[in-house]
Amino acid sequence: MNGPPDAGAAERGSAVAEFVLVSALLVALFLAVFQLALALHVRVLVVDAAAEGARVAARADRDLAAGAARTRDLLTAALDERYARSVSVRETTRSGLPVVEVTVRAPLPVVGLLGPGGTLTATGHALDEDA
């Protein structure tokens, strides 16, 4: 009765431990990919809001404040008020042409929508129709 130990008995219970470890790894990988997708989504929304604000501010019948307000409205509606806190609008020139420039500084989402402020910067330009 003192024969070699049964190989199957030594592995008993390892399937449960393996399942738990692999599941934890897969959940962490899924959450990392989801967070990356969320950060890219926020970046696209901030860039789009800056460009739309520049287009509104550059119209002949509007002023710079209207562009800033439109940018803030878009960011507040799509994300949160925190993302619309730092919006600046100015008139400048690019390649000798007068343009309106809208710059947005927003938080970069690190965990969910939470993150350090001012780390994501997007700038939108539009040709000034008044000039």
TrEMBL record:
Domain of life: Bacteria
InterPro entries in the record: TadE-like_dom
UniProt entry keywords in alphabetical sequence: Membrane, Transmembrane, Transmembrane helix
Entry-linked Pfam families: TadE
TadE-like domain location: 13-55
Parts of the chain that traverse the membrane: 20-40
Name used for this protein in its record: TadE-like protein
Native species: Isoptericola jiangsuensis
